[in-house]
Amino acid sequence: MVESAGGAPDLPATQLGYFDDMWQLQASAHVLSVLVEESKIAIIVDCTILYPQGGGQPSDKGFILSIDEQTRFRVEDVRTRDGLVYHYGFFEASDLGNSSTFQIGQEVILYVDKSRRQLNSRLHTAGHLIDVCIENIGLSSLQPGKGHHFPDGCSPFVEYKGAVPASDIESRRAALEAEANRLVAAGSTVQAAVCSYEEARNRCGGQLPDYIAKDSKPRIVSIGSSFGCPCGGTHVKDISEIGSMKVSQIRVKKGLTKVSYNVLPFEYPMHFEN
């Protein structure tokens, strides 16, 4: 059963399973809709563990499998719109050479590509760790802005309002890298919680960005005892799982400071569920 898309379906908002458990790689769900959008097939389920692109983090990939394992949908991209999560991809051909589809209400199993999720989580947590290190090395006057935690294309980076003097750029780069690797070696837990506005503000040091509505319940991510920040992404359980970090460049332009970084190959046993 495939429905043509004529605007957003009238469906309940998708439950975000990764909000509560960022390390779950397999979960059951029920199909709510199978859509075709400009020749692209999208699956909507009632609850998903696959992360939709946003917040500076790329989407998960994976697949959706029927309980009898006869129908398999390869998830190539995940997006969110109007509270619904769309899993884009294609149905793989069966052993008989023909492809199938899902029925509305059918129970299915969601699987997340483990290696991609691990790398994206390491990079995203590393970006948050840079925020902590900025404070620790005496650059608290810089105000956090946007982050880009993609492994492909340009280097991952975090951006701040404010400028580092040109004469200090190299020493600050070295200090950031040293502090990040010191904290990674020591290890510290990463916590995520959906809070009331007041609790979220307290967790973030007394203020929240203007885009956070006062009647909302933000999700706050924090590292150890450091102040947190609003974030809907996925992260490692402990910063020791980031592995070694490299701060490759600090660039200042038009009153903005851009810190480019990356993580090195890592084989630490991750806290992810198969």
Note down, in words, how this protein is organized.
- The protein has 274 residues and is α+β, with helices and mostly antiparallel strands.
- It is built from four helices and 16 strands.
- The protein has a six-stranded antiparallel beta barrel. A four-stranded antiparallel sheet has the order 10-11-16-15, with helices on one face.
- A hairpin with a 2-residue loop joins strand 3 and strand 4 (40-45).
Described by the principal axes of the CA atoms, the overall outline is elongated
Overall pLDDT metric: 92
The structural class is alpha+beta
Estimate the strand proportion: 25-35%
Spatial order of the strands forming the largest sheet: 3-4-8-7-6-9
| Overall radius of gyration | 20 Å
Q: Catalogue the unreliable spans.
A: none
N→C terminal distance: 30 Å
Order of helices and strands: EEHEEEEEEEHEEHEHEEEE
**Major sheet description:** 6 strands, antiparallel, barrel
